[in-house]
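For the sake of clarity, the format in which proteins appear in this thesis is described at this point. The fold follows as a row of integers, each naming the local backbone shape at the matching residue. One such record is shown here in full, so that the layout can be seen directly:
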Amino acid sequence: MAMDRVDGVALVAICGLLVISLVLENALGAAMLGGFLLSLSVWRLYDGRPWEALGWIAWVGATVVLIVGTGGPATAVAFAGFTVAGIGMLFGSRFGLFPDAWTVDRDGT
């Protein structure tokens, strides 16, 4: 489970966006983070890692909950659910727990 270039870019950019969000309005910072996470999911999808792409998409859902959530217990549950689902997808993909849904077996074996 080694980090690759996209993981390094993601780590630096997310830290930078979190620092920027201290200065900006919370909704704007969350929207910027959600947009970046969406681009990461597309990178992972084109890299042939659909389960990781779904994990990043789940984290986009978590940022959307931060933007439009009302702040009640339902918001907390939705945020935690999307976050845990994203973590599960990422680690499940990295440890090979999910089936290979990307490659096609052309010879029928």
Notes: The chain has a mean pLDDT of 86. Residues 5-94 form one domain. DSSP finds four helices and no strands in the chain. Residues 73-94 form the longest helix (22 residues).
